[in-house]
Amino acid sequence: MTLLELDLSALFVLAVILIWFMIAYQFVLTVFGYINFNKSLHEKRNVDGMTLDYPSCTILIPAHNEEKVIGHTLEAMLRLEYPREKLKIVVINDGSTDTTRDIINRFAAADARVELFDVPRGQGGKGKSRALNLGVQHITSEIIAIYDADNTPDKDALRYLVAQLLLHKDLGAVIGKFRTVNKNATLLTRFINIETLSFQSMLQAGRWQMHNIATLPGTNFVMRTSIIRQLHGWDEEALTEDSELSIRIYEEGYKIKFIPYAITYEQEPQEWHVWIQQRMRWVRGNNYVINKFVHHIPQFKNRRLGFDLLYTLALYYVFFVAIVISDVLFIVSALKLVSIALPGPYTAVWMLAFVLYLAEILLTLSYDREDSWRNLGLMVLMYFTYCQLWIYIVVRAWWSEYIMKEKRIWAKTVRFVVKAGDVSATRDSR
Question: pTM value?
Answer without folding.
Answer: 0.89
